[in-house]
Amino acid sequence: MTWENSAITIATLLPLVGALVIALVPRQYDKGVRALGIVFTGAALAFAIAITFTFDYGASGLQFQLNVPWIPAIDARYHVGIDGISLPLYVLTFVLSFLCAIYTWRIVPSPGKTKAFIALMLLLETGMAGTFIAFDLILFFVFWELVLVPMYFLIGIWGSANREYAAIKFFLYTLFGSVFMLLGFLAMFFNSDIGGGVHTFDIIALQDYAASGGFSHAFQLVVFAAVGLGFAVKVPMWPFHTWLPDAHTEAPTIGSVLLAGVMLKMGGYGFIRIALPILPYGAQKYAPWIGLLAAIAIVYAALACLAQKDLKRLIAFSSVGHMGFVMLGIATLTSIGINAAIFGMVAHGLITGMLFFCVGSLYDRYHTREIAEIGGGVMQKLPYLGGVFAFVAIASLGLPGLAGFWGEVMALLSSFSPAQPLSTPLFRAFMIAGGVGTILTAGYFLWMLQRVNMGTLPEKWKSQAFGDVVAVEWASWVPLLVGIVVLGLFPSLLTDVTQVPVNSLLGLFGA
Amino acid sequence: MNQAIDYTAILPELILAGTIVLVLVVDAFLSPARKWMTMPLAFAGVVASLIATLTLIGDDRSTFGGAFVVDEFALLFKVFFLTVALLVLMVSFRYIREGRFYQGEFYFLVLTSFLGCLLMPSSRDLLMLFISLELVSAPGFVMAAFRKSDPRSNEAGIKFFLFGVLSTAVMLYGMSLIYGLTGSLNLTEIGRALATPLPPGRETMALASILFIVAGFAFKVSAVPFQFWAPDTYEGAPVPVAAFLATASKAAGFAGLLQLMFVAFPAQYEFWTPIFAVLSILTMTIGNFVALQQRQVVRLLAYSSIAQAGYMLLPFALVSANPVINQDAFAAAVTYILIYAVMTLGAFAVVIAMAKESRGLLITDFAGLSRRAPVIAVAMTLFMVSLAGIPPLAGFWAKFLVFQVAIQRGGIGTALAIIMVVNSVVSLSYYLAVPKQMLFVDGEHERPLVAPAMVTAVAVLASVVVVAVGVWPELLAHFPPLSTLVGQ
């Protein structure tokens, strides 16, 4: 066991160990359980940070690889590794989980049950992190599905009024997509040949096999549809997004943060890691449709946001729009587009995670999420919270100099000149739709700020003694706020990491 | 044909038969307050039989002129059936003792059924197969009606009996035709005779008799459209009996069906694979969609067991001229049956734990169970999620193996796989109904639920298996390759 071959496994499994440890702690040590949550997510984050320091940013292949037999009976292997595409999302997972654990120090949503809450959160972290390092399709699928059960319970037990409906809808919808993905994986397996009629689930081997022209065109079209459905539901792409507003709105604050911050990225990551390189022909044929759905998502989500009365639901719909930019970038099949997608996903993770924290904290004080109920004047009542909220909302609408800007502008830029076989006029039309979307996005965020932050404080809140942002909240927010500014000012911090692997990935297209 | 009997080969059956007689005799001499002692006696007998079976591992024996065979397939199922027998005895004990049933007679009947189960995977001729199947079913008729004072239990018994007898008659008719056609009862010889081209008239008759036999077994494994008895019988019967019917009895039916289809009738696969495809689609779809409507836990599990039978029938529809796929299909079916039985038995153990305080056993009666009995609630959640096939639990790998062969088969296999995945998603919504009550809804009171220790033990044991196989599915690969039957 060396650092090189065990670091990412340890980081990924530490939260799982934490969940088991917490299950054994007696119920009465409530604060102790929360502390354990912080310790385990913190330790995992420390590993993740150490990995970023020992990562070789110049190399293009997989690093920190471990490839050992797991289930020989079905040729599934425990193959994990990390490259510049995985690394940002992998680290993001640990950052957000750690900050959620800190946030939970202050408040565990009703009905309590701290042990189960933290244990499920840790289990979720393992599932999410594992998805980003798995390089075997079966391992990938197991991690991918591992997130469903904890999230189902997080929404169903600790969610708000309509939680049961939202939880089951989330579970059924995402499962529906992923079972087709599994069939697609099996089809890839049986149609692959790495010499001597041997099949493989290994993502790298499948990429090489695909690059050598192994998969027929008809096969790619069918399997891309199956695999893409699984990813598209997770992203979620319009029109598969209907589970998202319910799940985000009903979930407890940290559930929404992790859902928006990390889980949606699993879908985009799946496209970049699996669907595109293994099924390049399918990707080229479906790209215009993905682009179309992405353009619709951007405009549709912005219009839907304008109509929302519930603050949290508004943020949820804004996620659909932001993920639309991510998918537009991916659909161009260009280096800029895919870099934009990864950048957009990381930025969205920081910004929307932060927005959900803000809405959660507002709700903890006002006990309502209705914009009309809050009725404005948050800036007067809670200057710090209002200020943070305004800052993050403006970051989310894509103000230059903040993280949200780069993902969107690069995605629009890439759709000006998409990859070779794609229709340039078509993608320019998508670009225009995206541009309209950015204007609408600015519109609904500013209008939201006007209704929530500005104006005079309604009489009924004046007598209430709300505390402004407390230390625990600052502790869990400051890293995100710093990240939003730093990535906004120095986008190359991230694009330098993703550039090399994205280029080598696009090399598989023979372009 | 006057050979010596290989007593070593039939030792497990002999021990069990001896125990059965012993239980019946001892029971007659026990005072009513001590009737419960028949259970430890039965338990000891099953343990002895299990030990005898374990000593046979690695052997390949055959006796009664090839009608009774001990091989890897048979031993796998025998060990499985005896383990299930131990678990069924454990979950029955308090239920039967406190429910004022005839205890000695109950254990006598249970063990007799299990003797049939034990014979089933060793039976390699039609007559043996028929006798073992009836030995499984006949005591079941009586056990289903064991709650004598409850009209629903009487209904359960009579329904099960009438359907069972009808199916037996149809099956027996088919078997007699096969004997007339091939002149043999031995499965391998039948397979050989049917593999040679038959004259046109006889070909039709062979197909008709296969259809009769399949229909007969479809009753036993409660496949649609022969499933009507199952929900009523499960609901009316004592819960441990329902557990037995849903696991061991169903597995015995599948063990018999596997031998018939893969050993005796593989040559006619082009005829019967479409039948199995239709049976499988109907069974899983109707089972799942009716399960969505259920309010009562045993009925929910009954329809779940119907839907699951549909998944188990799917590998039969994948049989083709390719022996590799046939072996994989066979292995997938066997693995599915075993994993299904563990999950379902665990779920029934939880229901038995609830049965004492909740007569109606409605799903809503499980409300707030996570606070009242956390261990049982967690175990039940695991069983339900595993039955729905969510990784990383055992039920996922069972489904995975079926998907794998189906996709490998291609053509009809792909279509069946798609239907099965859609069904799995549908099934999730009713499987989650129970955990939803236990975890999301508060109960009327918070008084801890005290479950009998042995019932809790069974639930915990089953959940450990579900998680262990789920996390480390390579455990399954340590089963014998299961190829001894197929591709000979």
Account of the protein in words:
With 511 residues, chain A is mostly helical. Chain A has one domain. Chain A has 22 helices and two strands. Chain A has helices at residues 3-24, 30-54, 86-106, 114-133, 137-146, 148-158, 163-191, 203-211, 217-234, 243-250, 253-278, 280-306, 311-331, 335-366, 371-374, 378-381, 383-396, 403-416, 424-452, 459-462, 471-489, 492-506, and strands at 63-71, 76-82. Chain A has a two-stranded antiparallel ribbon with strand order 1-2. The longest helix of chain A has 32 residues, at 335-366. With 488 residues, chain B is mainly alpha-helical. Chain B has a domain at 265-488. Chain B is built from 20 helices and two strands. In chain B, strand 1 and strand 2 (68-70) form a beta hairpin. In chain B, helix 2 runs parallel beside helix 4. The two termini of chain B are 24 Å apart. Classes of the chains: A mainly alpha (511), B mainly alpha (488). The A-B interface holds A 70-74, 141-142, 145-146, 148-149, 152-153, 156-157, 163-164, 167-168, 171-172, 175-176, 179-180, 182-183, 186-187, 189-190 and B 385, 390-392, 396, 400-401, 403-404, 407-408, 410, 414, 417-418, 421-422, 424-425, 428-429, 432, 436, 439-440, 473-474, 476-477.
What tags apply to this protein structure?
heterodimer; A: 511 residues; mainly alpha; two-stranded antiparallel sheet; 22 helices; 75% helix; 3% strand; globular; B: 488 residues; two-stranded antiparallel ribbon; 20 helices; 1% strand
